[in-house]
Amino acid sequence: MGIFQEPDGLRRVVLNRTFVITLTGMTIFAIFSFSVDRFFTVENLLNTLRQIAILGILSVGMTLLFAVGEIDIAIGSIYGFLTVVMGILVGRYGWNPWEGMLAVIALGALIGANTGLIVTKIGIPSFVVTLAEMVAYRSASLLASGERPSEVEGSGSFYAASGGYIGGAFPWLIVWMMVIVIAGGVILTRTKFGCHVFATGGDQEAARNWGINTRRIKFWCFVSMGALCGLSGALLFGWLQVAAPITGTGLEFGVIAAVILGGTALQGGRGSIYGSLVGAVIIGMLSSGLVLLGLSQQWKDVATGALILLAAALDWFGRKVGRRFAPAVAEAD
Amino acid sequence: MRPDLQEAELFHLQNPPSDGAAVSCLRGRGLSKSFGHVRALHGVDIDVFGREVLAIVGDNGAGKSTLTKILSGVIQPDRGDIYIGQEKVHISDARRAHELGVATVFQTLALVNCRDVACNLFLGREPIVGGIFVDRKKMLADARVAFAELGINIPNLLAEVSELSGGQRQCVAIARAMSQNSQIVIMDEPTAALGVKESGHVLDLIMRLRAAGRAVIIISHNMHHVFSVADRIMVLRRGTLAGLRHKSETTADEIVALIVGGDAIVKERKETHPDAGLLSPAAGE
User: Fold this and answer.
1) What is the 8-class DSSP label of residue B67?
2) Gap between the Cα atoms of B264 and B243, Å rounded
3) Which of A83, A100, A249, B88 could covalently link to A90 via disulfide, CB atoms 3.0 to 4.6 Å apart?
4) Are A202 and B94 an interchain contact pair (Cβ–Cβ within 8 Å)?
């Protein structure tokens, strides 16, 4: 019974967001390389990647959350709060920075667990819960720090491994980002957990029907988001050796922009960590290229906004084309 | 005892199941369920045998869904017993039903549309390698076997379910239910959302399940489909058994009359118009 037809090859490529985002990234890269002096230098490219390292790390957690059908808009505040806590632990109480890092990762995981419990057990939408947290944790970091930045004169393995370079040239931050991105990608695409993340985000009722504990899956996505905020805060502190209470203000929008650019759907069920990484790299390239062109940083946000709209338009167009090619029979749902 | 119950029991005595399946695969006795003040099901008996298709028909609110939900473990009956083979069982939830060999294809299909076919087939019971990783190779190989056994031709297991047509989705959902080697398959409106050709494929699949010795229960509003696959037809009306007929011994008109509760109309019609029973089966839709 030959009722299953091979999907049209061209259509698959056009609809494939991974392909589209990669092409977009390469196009922007090519344009800047040819038109902007000093853009296509090893130094500038490595520096660009270093600038987006934290954006990239956080976008891994956000991709998980989007894929499972949730959102966390408090990550900028939580990341700032945990940076401040790191600064206090290391700067004021003289903790070993490695221990400080473990502590803020654990604290971040706890914060994420708290969010996860409120969302899954009480059933308040994550947008509302994290909106409250966004305000609360920003104030918490101001209160905890006494509105003063904590500074350290850092030297030693932790500072070398966060702000330093491998062989004097390759920033360690990029290594951290790549490790998290690869780990996140493997978890999302290769493991049972990742499979259940997509199933939960795609159709929670169906997933539950087949015995998947959708609450538990969501809970662990929030926990990993929190832990990644902690890791990012610790790395930022090791890099800059200062913890400012306004750290991460507005960062959630950059992260969400990277994830959406990368083709991860807000409504859940789809998502690619590779796409989010390319999204983050695109934002980094825009920032670096426009600065080299002598334009203000604000133009980067204008360009990012335009790209998000373009991505959304492509997505809409893709689905419209997809529908036109779909078999002309009644939909089952 | 109420007369319709006697009718049901008498029916089984007089009509031993064909093809030598001596004991019923699944038996329900006196199943009752109320939702608040609404009596959805009241003392209904059901028997289904291996190698047969039992159709459950009835108007909206007749208790069809309630009955199948009880059998698939989604809801619990207030009263009544369920037997599988000779054993009395308690179907506490959907998972227990699967363990007992009762698979249900819900009307919603319960597929995740944005995931591929193979993923959907093994959702919640993925083959695992190395403790946490999904064994994609085994999953695809097993999926191919599962589809081949059901005679479903599916060249691309990596296509998203959302890309499939309604009939294809129905086939995936049936394959999903069947791949647990279930002896009893319950299908809620398997052809409701499908076109003519696709319905044909699904009805073919039902006949193949029957030929493989499975007991199949289908709910359908489509008299034409009911008459093309069912061996017996069970009519529910307002939560009670209104009639149980062998396909060969009834007509679409009689079934429709049982559904709406007008036995008298049929008799009257038959007396005045001897050809009334030949009315198009599609009239039952």
Assistant:
1) H
2) 14
3) A100
4) no
Provide residues of B within 8 Å CB-CB of chain A. Answer: 94-95, 106, 108-115, 119, 123-126, 128, 132-134, 151-156, 159, 163-171, 193-195, 197-198, 201, 204
Q: List, in sequence order, every residue forming a beta bridge with B28; answer none if it has no partner.
A: B46, B82
Residue A188 in tokens: 């999302």
Residue B168 to residue B186: CA distance in whole angstroms: 18
Nearest CA among B69, B36, B47, B13 for reference residue B241: B47
Q: Extract the tokens encoding B180.
A: 């647990």
Domain spanning A42-315 has what CATH number? 1.10.3470
Q: Which of A219, A205, A206, A266 is nearest to A119 (CA)?
A: A219
pLDDT in tens, chain B (285 residues): 444 444 545 555 445 444 444 456 889 999 999 998 888 999 999 999 988 999 999 988 889 989 998 998 888 999 999 998 888 999 888 778 888 888 888 888 889 988 999 999 998 889 999 989 999 999 999 999 888 877 787 778 888 888 888 888 888 988 888 777 788 999 988 888 788 887 888 898 899 889 888 899 999 988 999 999 999 999 999 999 999 999 988 888 899 888 888 654 555 555 555 444 444 444 333
| The CATH number of domain B3-91+215-284 is 2.40.40.20 | no
Nearest to A260 by CA among A46, A71, A128, A78: A71
Please classify residue B98 by burial: count the beta carbons closer than 10 Å to its beta carbon, then call 0-12 exposed, 13-18 middle and 19+ buried: buried
CB < 8 Å to B153, chain A:
1-4
In chain A, where are the structural domains located?
42-315
Which of A198, A211, A331 lies at the smallest CB-CB distance from B124? A211
How many alpha carbons fall within 13 Å on the CB side of residue B158?
Answer: 4
Is B133 strand, coil or helix? strand
A59 CA to chain B: closest CA distance, Å? Answer: 21
Of residues B94, B125, B134, nearest to A209 (C-beta): B94
**Helix, coil or strand: residue B45:** strand
Out of A192, A207, A332, closest to residue B193 by CB: A332
CB nearest B109 (choices: A5, A198, A332): A332
**B182 close to B214: Cβ distance less than 8 angstroms:** yes
Tell me if B252 sits within 8 A of B222, measured CB to CB: no
Cross-chain residue pair A330–B106, CB shorter than 8 Å: no
Phi, psi of B216 (to 5 degrees): -120, 130
Distances (CA, A) of A98 to A160, B14, B283: 12, 81, 77
Mutation target among B115, B172, B187 for the A interface, most CBs of A within 10 A: B115
A191 with B94: Cβ contact below 8 A: no
Which candidate, A71, A113, A73, places its Cα nearest to that of A264?
A: A71
* Calpha distance A166→A182 (Å, rounded): 19
Q: Which residues of B touch A332 (CB under 8 A)?
A: 109, 166, 169-170, 193-194
Task: Say which amino acid occupies B173.
Answer: A
Domain locations in chain B as residue ranges: 3-91+215-284
